[in-house]
Amino acid sequence: MDYIKIAESDNVAVALNDLPKGSEAFGTTVYEEIPRGHKFALRPIKTGESIIKYGSPIGRASQDIPSGAWVHTHNAKTNLEGILEYKYEPVPETEIKGKKGVFNGYRRADGKVGVRNEIWIIPTVGCVNSPAEIIARRASEYVCGSVDGVFALTHPYGCSQLGEDHKNTQKALAGLARHPNAGGVLILGLGCENNNIDEFKKILGDVDSNRVRFLNCQDVEDEISAGVAVARELIELAASDEREETPSSELIIGLKCGGSDGLSGITANPAVGVFSDMLIGGGGSAILTEVPEMFGAENRLMERCENEEIFLETVKLINDFKEYFMRYGQTVYENPSPGNKKGGITTLEDKSLGCTQKCGAAPVRSVISYGDAVCKRGLTLLSAPGNDLVASTALAVSGAHIVLFTTGRGTPFGCPVPTVKISSNSALASKKSGWIDFDAGVVCESGDISACGNDLFDYVMRLASGETRTKSEEQGMKGISIFKDGVTL
Question: What is the pLDDT of residue 81?
Answer without folding.
Answer: 78
